Amino acid sequence: MNLRWLLRQAALLFAVLVIVSPVILFFVWMLSLSVKYEIDNAAYPPILIPERFAWKNYIDVLESNRFSTYFVNSLLVTGTATGLALLVGVPAGYGIARMKAAKAAVVILVARITPGLSYLIPLFLLFQWLGLLGTLWPQIIIHLVVTVPIVIWIMIGYFETTPLELEEAAVIDGASRWQVFRHVALPIAKPGIAVAMILAVIFSWNNFVFGIVLAGRETRTLPVAVYNMISFDQLSWGPLAAAALIVTLPVLVLTVFAQRQIVAGLTAGAVKGG
Amino acid sequence: MARAGLAPPTVSTGELATDAAPATRWRPPGYWPFVVPALIVVVGVIVFPWAFTLWMSLHEWKVGSAPAFVGLSNYARLPTDPRFLDAVWQTLLYTALSVVLPLILGTLAACVFHARFPLRGFLRGVFILPMMATPVAIALVWTMMFHPQLGVLNYLLSLVGIPAQLWVFHPATVIPSLVLVETWQWTPLVMLIVLGGLAALPTEPYESAQIDGASLWQVFRHITLPLVAPFLFVAAMIRMIDAVKSFDIIFAITQGGPGTASETINIYLYSVAFAYYDVGYGSAIAVVFFLLIIALAAALLVVRKRTQGAVG
């Protein structure tokens, strides 16, 4: 009996190992590529842990004159697009949930199905006509296509589950609809807002397709900058892998620490932008 | 006011109680003020592009020249465009593989993660990293791993005696190689959805199956599978919608190459609109692309209805 239990446990752990190893091995290899000198990256058979670590790959990337510009661009685009989305999306989710107009969310579903490029062509022409190309505004505005549906969708679902009794009590006490929202509904909804914010930040940060069309030399976000490194400036693998890791590190850290919110958001709404 | 009828009755009653002032007093217009700002944004960045795309698709328009109305001739051009037809076929192949493989592997992974074991929460967090990580960064590392001479994948193959492959550098293997990346990336999403389904399963059927001495496979086939079928369907739908639109991975690794061997509709659409700046024709492709996604979703719904009797 005990032996059988032990065998089953061992089989289970083996299965877990098999399932998780492609993920762990990939990221370990990414890390390994990023800390090796060119000669070690070109070695055959491949070297996992080099004798000398090339920390200079990271320094090269961080000190390259445009990196800080691109980092700030990414922060501004993701930050503003997420902030604006929360500003309009949280009240909208509340209104739609309270009006029991969940069918209005069908627009969000269609937006989820529509290919990102179908937004890009018309908005590109619009931005060109408005003379906005060359600033960060086109990217901030088009990232709303990613962030606003995520926020509205998650907030509708969240406000539909929050209890109405408190809000009714506040209305009887003479509070206006806005006061009810601001002082009763909003504080309760903080966990839902956190979920919406985390997902909006990640999908906006990761977005690539909008940037390759709308970003100029000075207005690239990090994913676009990394892509351009592949095609033009950089042919050695070490600094490239280091740049890739730096770009995605904030998201990886956020995923590990906020995995409960991410899992809740993805399985409830299963919304992804772009 | 007609709008007031949309509000829940309980709140309206409360509102009346506060409306003790004269009857001419301004009445709050329901919940509309909460929705209006978002509505403006949605109309501006989502509905306007849809309408403008439809309008452009009826025009001959290259960026820099004036648009000229041409009716449906952009659409008529599609069936005679061999590059578009190839792209449709490649999209369907890519999508089919990118739905089926994550669905199978994700279901298996969910069965494992459904069990209790040490570090389960942390390992689940690690397992979902591929789908949250920045796709371009991921694509860059995969490109290095696919490298025929220096890539680690060919080294791993050599360890088990399989000859070196050209991966994304050969027309015959490029789509399966990209699907490998897509599967690695998106199996976790299927796992999460199916895991949610498993968590909601009733325990009674399992208890009686255990009493009847059913084998593990019998339990999976006749109890688990029918019960999680609705979740598998949701996962298949989401996977289909994402795979058919896949852009970042393909564009960053192959740009549709070698030649046009991995050019999907989305990649071709990008070239037409932003390499040739033919926005009229590009818009027609976008519209047809959207209709294709709707058609695939409808087909999945039909499959679901048909199999409900057989599996469910």
From TrEMBL, chain A:
Leader peptide range in chain numbering: none
Alphabetical list of Gene3D superfamilies matching this protein: MetI-like
Membrane topology: Multi-pass membrane protein
One GO CC term, this protein: plasma membrane
Residue ranges of domain ABC transmembrane type-1 in the record: 71-258
GO biological process: transmembrane transport
InterPro entries registered for this protein in UniProt: BP-dep_ABC_trans_perm, MetI-like, MetI-like_sf
Record family assignment: Belongs to the binding-protein-dependent transport system permease family.
The name this protein goes by in its record: Carbohydrate ABC transporter permease
Lineage: Bacteria, Pseudomonadati, Pseudomonadota, Alphaproteobacteria, Hyphomicrobiales
Automatic annotation (TrEMBL), chain B:
Protein's membrane topology: Multi-pass membrane protein
UniProt domain ABC transmembrane type-1: residue ranges: 88-302
Membrane spanning stretches: 31-52, 92-115, 121-145, 152-172, 223-241, 279-303
Superkingdom of the source species: Bacteria
UniProt keywords, alphabetically: Membrane, Transmembrane, Transmembrane helix, Transport
Pfam families: BPD_transp_1
One GO cellular component, as annotated: plasma membrane
Main location group: membrane
Subcellular location: Cell membrane
Single biological process term from Gene Ontology: transmembrane transport
PANTHER family in the record: GLUCOSE IMPORT SYSTEM PERMEASE PROTEIN GLCT (PTHR43759:SF1), TREHALOSE TRANSPORT SYSTEM PERMEASE PROTEIN SUGA (PTHR43759)
Family assignment from sequence similarity: Belongs to the binding-protein-dependent transport system permease family.
Designated name of the protein: Sugar ABC transporter permease
Lineage: Bacteria, Pseudomonadati, Pseudomonadota, Alphaproteobacteria, Hyphomicrobiales
